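FIELD: query
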Amino acid sequence: MVLQAIKYSRGRLDILDQLRLPHEEVYINIASCQEAWNAIKSMQVRGAPAIAIVAALSIAVPAARALEIENQHIPPDSAVQQIIYDLEYLVTSRPTAVNLSDAATKLKTVVKNFANDPSSEKRTVLQTYIEAAEHMLVDDVQDNERIGKHGAEWIMRNKPRAGREDKVSVITHCNTGSLATAGYGTALGVVRSLQCLGSLHHVFYTETRPYNQGSRLTGYELIHDGIPATLVTDSMAAALLNTRRASDNIAAIVVGADRVAANGDTANKIGTYSLAVLARHHGVKFLVAAPRTTIDMETKTGADIVIEERPEIEMLNIKGPVYLRDESKVDTRLIQEVCVAAKGTRAWNPAFDVTPAELIDGVVTEKGVVEKNEHGVFRWDKVFEEHAVEDVPEVDAPKPLGMAVDGITATEFMATAS
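FIELD: result
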C-alpha cells in the first residue's frame, strides 16, 4: 500500500505532517487557505504537485462548509473575488514551483468562466470550484502512474547493457514520491514502475541536505514499499558513480522538477545540477520526471526562474528526536535542536538550483518522454498538442479512475461528491 500524504473527503482535508517523518505519522487538519499557506511555507507539505493540490483543496473545504448552511445567500461576484484572492495569496507561499501558480491560474479561469456564463445559473460558483479542485486531486495520481511507466520503459531502452533481462540501478535526489504528490510519485514513481517490471536492482538516494528530504522522506517511502535501497550523502554521488556504476549497472539519475523552462532548463532541489554534471561525466543518463503542468512556456530560460532562499538556520542547526544509543531506539518524546556550525557562521541557503537543458537527456511527462532534437532543442509540441483547452478542469464529466479516496474508488468518490 502506497503512503498517503493527502487525505480528502468533501469538506475535510488532512495532510501528513512531513516535519514529523520518518519517526511519526501525524496528520494535521487543513481547514482554511491560511492554514494551507502556513503548511506549505513551513514544509509540512512539500513537493511541487502536492502543494498545488493542497492549496486548491484548502479553498474547497470552507467552500463546502458554506454550501451546507441553509438559506445562505452568497453573491456570485463576491465568491469569485474571494476565491481569486485566496488563490493569489497561496501562490506566494513558495514561488519557485510552477505547479502551484499553474493550478491557481486554471482554477481562476474556471470560476471566471462560470461567472460569465448565464447558462450555468443552477450551479453555484462554490460547487463549480469544488468539483474542479477535486478533479485535480484525482487526475494527479493517474498522471504520476503514466510518468512512472514511460520513465521506466525509457530507462530500460537506454540502459548500458544489452538485453532487457539485465536489472538496472538508479540514483534519485530529494523526495519525489507519494509524499510529494497526490500519490505514486514522479521520479520515485519511475523507481516504483521499474520495481513492478522486475527490472530494478537497487536505488541509491541522496540525503538531500540541508532539509534531508532524501534520508527522512524518500528512505521512509522505500522502506515502506520494500524497495532495495541505500542512502548516500550528497557529496558521495561522484564516488558512487566512479566505483559502482558498472558493478551495480547504474543506468540513470532520475529527479523531479519544480519548474521546467521553455528551453528545458530545470529548477529542482538544490544539488540536482551537480548530479547532472556527474551523470554527463560518467556517461549515465539524466532524466527529469514531472507532469506537464511543470513545464512553464512563459519562462523562456532558467535565468528567469525565481529561486527561493530559505533561512540560514536550516543549514546551521539540525532538529530531531533523541536517539537512545544504549537502547538502540529513537525517543520521539524528546525533540532537540542541535547546532552543527561554529558560532557566527553565515550561510547561503537556496532551496533550488537550475540544471541547464544541455545536461538533461530526457523529460518524462504523463504524455511520454521528450528528448532533444538534432539541434539540441526540447520541443514540447506532443506534450501539449492534445486538446489545447483540456487543462481547464472539466467539472461535468468525471474520469473513471482507480485511485482510492477515503477507501472508495475515484469514480465512486466523484459520483458521491457531486
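FIELD: remark
The longest helix spans residues 125-157.
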